[in-house]
Amino acid sequence: MEEKAARAYDQAALKYWGPSTHINFPLENYQNQLEEMKNMTRQEYVAHLRRKSSGFSRGASMYRGVTRHHQHGRWQARIGRVAGNKDLYLGTF
């Protein structure tokens, strides 16, 4: 799992800062990903990485801003980047 996280970091770093940035593994390991990321914005590529993470599937909803809360399987709503805050909690339903 630690290696997967390191590879996700490398891919995001390559997308944000380019191939001259310091990464954990050799650049040659990411040739397919470099081609893939050419067709995506930074935000799209980060979303792509998140979808591949093991944490994404836990509590995932088909709706934006909705996640399964850890208590009693209820759903939690949040909206991001509101009035300078990281996110705004809207409630548990």
Automatic annotation (TrEMBL):
GO CC terms, sorted: nucleus
MF annotations from Gene Ontology: DNA binding; DNA-binding transcription factor activity
Protein's UniProt keywords contain DNA-binding: yes
Keyword Transcription regulation part of the UniProt annotation: yes
Organism: Trifolium medium
Sorted UniProt keywords: DNA-binding, Nucleus, Transcription, Transcription regulation
PROSITE patterns noted in UniProt: AP2_ERF (PS51032)
Protein name: AP2-like ethylene-responsive transcription factor ANT
Location in or out of the cell: Nucleus
Residue ranges of every copy of the AP2/ERF domain listed in the record: 1-26, 62-93
InterPro entries assigned to the protein according to its UniProt record, in alphabetical order: AP2/ERF_dom, AP2/ERF_dom_sf, DNA-bd_dom_sf
Predominant localisation class: nucleus
Superkingdom of the organism of origin: Eukaryota
